[in-house]
Design brief:
Strand content of chain A: under 5%
Structural class of chain B: alpha/beta
Number of strands of chain B: 10
Radius of gyration of chain A: 19 Å
Distance between the termini of chain B: 41 Å
Largest interface: A-B, 17 and 26 residues
Strand content of chain B: 25-35%
Bound molecules: adenosine-5'-triphosphate, magnesium ion
Strand order of the largest sheet of chain A: 1-2
Number of strands of chain A: 2
Radius of gyration of chain B: 17 Å
Oligomer: heterodimer
Chain lengths: 257, 236
C-alpha cells in the first residue's frame, strides 16, 4: 500500500526478542520486558522510516534492496556485538491437557497474543482518528494532504506500528527459543508466503491464510516431521497461488458480491 | 480603507516538468466574494487551484492567504490555515464511509476551529442518510455533495471548487449553487470556483477572471457577469 517491500521486518522481530531477553536477564519481570521490547521495536521502526524507508515510497524494488541491506548490516552487527547466541530465559511454567495431549500454558498465551494483536490493529485503523487519516492517506495521499493530513507523519507512525507488531512477535516468542542474530529470517519466509497467499485484505486474507498454512504445516509436521511440513506448506502455497491469483481475500471478496 | 484580501496571487509561474503552464497569474479575492475562474480547456485553471492548495509548488511568484505568505509550504499547511479544496473529479476516499470522509475534513482550519456537522447535514441531508455507506459506491452527484461537505466541515475561510457542475444533472447543480450561496451568506466564506457551465457561472459568480494560456487576460467586473460577456470565453 505504501509501495515498499520491507526485507528488514524480521530484524524488528529480533529487536523485540533481544530487548525482552536482555531486560529479563537484567531482572525485569517478563511481561514488562516484553512491553519494552514492543516499544523499542516501534521506536526503531519510526527511526528507520524517517531515515531510510521514506526515500523509497512507490519504489518497491529499490526499497527491497535498501531494507535487505539494512537487514544484513543489523544481523552481522549483532553477531559482532552480542555474539552468535544469547542465553535463553526459559518458557514460563505450566501446562494443560486437551484429551491425551499436553500443551504448555505459554502456547495459549501465544495464541491469545496473536488474536489480541489483530484486535488492536483493527481498532487502531478502523476506530480511531489516526486510523481514518491513515486509510485516507493510503487511498489518496495527495487529497489527504490537501485536507490537512500530515502524510509524512502518518507514514512514519504506520511503519512504527508495523515494526512494533513485529517486535511483539519477537517478544512473545523470546522465551521459547534460543536467540540468534539471524532469527528474523526464519520468520520472514513464512510471513512472506502468508502475505502473498492472503492477498490484499489483512483481516479477510492474511489471517485466514495464516491459519490455513499453519494447519497444513503442523499436520504434516506431526505426520512425517519438520522437513515434510516445510515442503508441504510451500507446495500448498504454489497450488493456492495457481488457483487463487488474488489470494484468499480476493477469493472471499469476490464471493461476497 | 481596504482590508487585506483573503487571497492574493501575484506573478505566479508554475511548471509541469520543463513545460511552463502558469505564466504570471495575478488575482485578488476579497472576504466574502464569490469569484469565477473561467477559460477554455487546458489553459491552466486546475493547475492554478493546485498551486493555491499547495499540491503543486510554484516556480516563482507570491501566494498570500489571510495575510500569510504561503509559497513553498506543504499542502497540509494550506488546509490547516482554512482552505477547503474540492478537486475536479471529486476524489472522495472510495473505501471509506461518508462519515469517515467528513472526519478527514475536520483538519481544515486547525484543531481550534469550529466543526460544522449540523450545518453540512442540514444542507446535504443525503450525507446524513448515507453516513455509513462507502463513498465509492455513491452516485456522482452524491460524491460531489460529499466533496463539498468534506471541505466545509472545518469551516474554511476560503473554498476552492474545480468544476463542481461537471457530469452532474442540472437539478443537483442548482441545489449545489443554492448551498454555496447559503454558505457565503451564513458563514461569510470566500469562494473561488473554476467553471465551464454558463448557467452555473451566471447563477453564482459576482466577478470572473478569464484565463488564457496560463495568464489572466481579462476580468469581468461585478455587475457585468452576463451570458454575453461570459460565453465568448468558454469552450463551446
Ligand atoms: N500532471 C501533469 N503533467 C504534465 N502536464 C500536465 C499535467 N496536468 C496538466 N498538464 C497540462 O497543463 C495544462 C493545463 O492543465 P489544467 O488541468 O490546468 O487545465 P484546465 O484549465 O483545468 O483544463 P480543463 O478545463 O480541461 O479542466 C494542459 O496543457 C495539461 O495538458
Ligand atoms: Mg481543470
Amino acid at each position: 500500500m505504501m509501495g515498499v517491500i520491507n526485507m528488514a521486518h524480521g530484524e524488528f522481530i529480533m529487536c523485540g526478542a533481544y530487548v525482552t531477553v536482555g531486560l529479563v536477564h537484567g531482572g525485569l519481570p517478563l511481561p514488562l520486558a516484553q512491553l519494552c521490547g514492543v516499544i523499542a521495536a516501534g521506536l526503531v521502526g519510526v527511526l528507520v522510516e524517517m531515515t531510510i524507508v521514506r526515500r523509497f515510497y512507490k519504489r518497491p524494488l529499490d526499497s527491497l534492496l535498501a531494507t535487505w541491506g539494512l537487514s544484513l548490516v543489523v544481523t552481522q552487527g549483532m553477531l559482532i556485538l552480542v555474539g552468535s547466541s544469547l542465553a535463553g530465559i526459559g518458557t514460563p511454567e505450566g501446562s494443560f491437557k486437551v484429551g491425551e495431549y499436553s500443551f504448555s500454558t505459554y502456547r495459549l498465551v501465544l495464541f491469545g497474543g496473536a488474536i489480541a494483536a489483530l484486535a488492536v490493529i483493527y481498532f487502531i485503523f478502523m476506530r480511531t482518528r489516526f486510523g481514518v487519516h491513515a486509510r485516507a492517506t493510503m487511498q489518496n495521499p495527495q487529497m489527504a494532504q490537501a485536507l490537512g493530513v500530515k502524510v509524512g507523519r502518518v507514514y512514519a507512525i504506520s511503519f512504527g506500528i508495523g515494526a512494533a507488531l513485529a517486535g511483539f512477535c519477537g517478544a512473545l516468542y523470546a522465551p521459547t527459543m534460543t536467540l540468534i542474530p539471524t532469527m528474523g529470517a526464519t520468520f520472514i519466509v513464512e510471513s512472506f508466503v502468508t502475505v502473498v497467499v492472503g492477498g490484499a485484505n489483512v483481516l479477510l486474507g492474511t489471517a485466514p491464510a495464516g491459519a490455513l498454512l499453519a494447519i497444513i504445516r503442523t499436520s504434516l509436521n506431526a505426520w512425517e516431521g519438520q522437513i515434510i511440513g516445510q515442503i508441504g506448506m510451500l507446495i500448498a502455497v504454489i497450488l493456492i497461488i495457481r488457483i487463487l491469483p488474488e489470494g484468499v481475500s480476493g477469493f472471499l471478496t469476490r464471493r461476497q458480491r | 480603507m481596504s482590508t487585506e484580501p483573503v487571497l492574493s496571487v501575484s506573478g505566479l509561474w508554475a511548471n509541469y516538468g520543463a513545460t511552463p503552464i502558469l505564466q504570471g497569474v495575478n488575482m485578488n479575492v476579497a472576504k466574502g466574494e464569490i469569484v469565477g475562474l473561467i477559460g477554455r480547456n487546458g489553459v491552466g485553471k486546475t493547475t492554478t487551484l493546485r498551486c493555491l492548495i499547495g499540491l503543486l509548488s510554484a516556480k516563482s511568484g507570491a501566494i498570500r492567504v489571510l495575510g500569510h505568505d504561503m509559497a513553498g509550504q506543504p499542502s497540509d499547511a494550506f488546509a490547516r490555515l482554512g482552505i477547503g479544496y474540492i478537486p475536479q473529479g471529486r476524489e472522495v476516499f472510495p473505501r471509506m464511509t461518508v462519515a469517515e470522509n467528513l472526519a478527514v475534513g475536520e483538519l481544515i482550519g486547525g484543531p481550534a476551529g469550529k466543526k460544522l456537522y449540523d450545518f453540512v447535514y442540514q444542507y446535504f441531508p443525503r450525507l446524513k442518510e448515507r453516513s455509513q455507506q462507502l463513498a465509492g459506491t455513491m452516485s456522482g452527484g452524491e460524491q460531489q455533495q460529499l466533496a463539498i461537505g468534506r471541505a466545509l466541515i472545518g469551516n474554511p475561510s476560503l473554498m476552492l471548487l474545480d468544476e463542481p457542475s461537471e457530469g452532474i444533472q442540472p437539478s443537483i447543480v442548482q441545489m449545489i449553487c443554492e448551498v454555496l450561496k447559503s454558505i457565503r451568506r451564513e458563514l461569510g466564506t470566500t469562494i473561488l470556483l473554476v467553471e465551464q457551465n454558463l448557467d452555473t457561472i451566471l447563477a453564482i459568480s459576482e466577478r470572473c477572471y478569464v484565463m488564457e494560456k496560463g495568464r489572466i487576460v481579462n476580468e469581468i467586473e461585478k455587475g457585468m457577469v452576463t451570458a454575453n460577456s461570459v460565453r465568448s470565453h468558454l469552450s463551446i
